[in-house]
Amino acid sequence: MRDDEIAYLIGRICLKDRQAFRRVYDLTSGKLFGICLRLLRRRDDAEEALMAIYPKIWQQADRFAPGEASAFSWLAAIARRHAIEVIRARRPVASNIEEAYDIVDVEPGPGPEATAVVGSEGGPVGTCLQGLKATDASVVRKAYVEGLSYEELATLYGIPVNIAKSWLRRSLLELRVAEP
Question: For the whole prediction, is pTM greater than 0.70?
Answer without folding.
Answer: no
